[in-house]
Amino acid sequence: MSLKKCKEKLTQILDEYGKENEALLPCLHAACEKCGYLSEETISFLAEKLNLPRVEVYSVATFYSMFNLKKTGKYIIRVCVSLPCYLKGSRKILEILKDELNIEINQTTQDKKFTLEAVSCLGLCEQAPAMMINKEVYGNLTPKKVRQIVRQYKLSTTERSLKAPLQNPNSKIEGAG
Ligand code: FES
């Protein structure tokens, strides 16, 4: 989405919330979702509209790990590295993703398709080790399953083409485990 469209969307949200401080979080969410990340310009725009110091908008944006302040790939892979996932092998999962994508943590592939992040608990502890790719969740990961998932994303040309095979990774990935 262009910056212009992104600003239009933010203006809609601001109208809804009456430009009160409560609009800040919904706006940051919308900006990340619609624009892909929080650019300097978006932060300045929100600060101006909400009549907040720029530094305040910036500190809220940096407080929450789900907000990206750098341009990200089409797919953001978030691997949980909190203790339950760590104990079940999240480090290995990250190593495999780094190898498959040929990037390090917090980097984006050259084709701008993937960004890899190590994050704290995703709320999927019962399925540790777990990761998310955009809004899709993947649990009970094994090295083999992770390679299969990421290779399907690499091959995909549209989000829709991914939904069917990957919706329930615990049961639909053949040969997982
Ligand atoms: S510890 Fe990994 S999802 Fe909660």
3D architecture notes:
- The model is unreliable at 167-177 (pLDDT under 50).
- The protein has helices at residues 3-17, 24-35, 40-50, 54-63, 83-87, 90-101, 143-155, 160-166, 169-172, and strands at 75-80, 114-119, 131-133, 136-138.
- The protein is built from 9 helices and 4 strands.
- Helix 3 (40-50) packs across helix 4 (54-63).
- The radius of gyration is 18 Å and the shape is elongated.
- A hairpin with a 2-residue loop joins strand 3 and strand 4.
- With 177 residues, the protein is α+β, with helices and mostly antiparallel strands.
- It has a 4-stranded mixed sheet with strand order 2-1-3-4, covered by helices on one side.
- Helices cover 50% and strands 10% of the residues.
- Bound molecules: FE2/S2 (inorganic) cluster.
- FE2/S2 (inorganic) cluster (FES) binds next to helix 5.
Which helices and strands, and how do they pair?
Elements: H1 3-17, H2 24-35, H3 40-50, H4 54-63, E1 75-80, H5 83-87, H6 90-101, E2 114-119, E3 131-133, E4 136-138, H7 143-155, H8 160-166, H9 169-172
Parallel strand pairs: 1-2
Antiparallel strand pairs: 1-3, 3-4
Helix pairs in contact: 1-2, 1-3, 3-4, 6-7
The structure holds FE2/S2 (inorganic) cluster.
FE2/S2 (inorganic) cluster is lined by residues 80, 82, 84-85, 121-125, 128, 130.
Strand content: 5-15%
Number of strands: 4
| Helix/strand class | alpha+beta
Oligomer: single chain
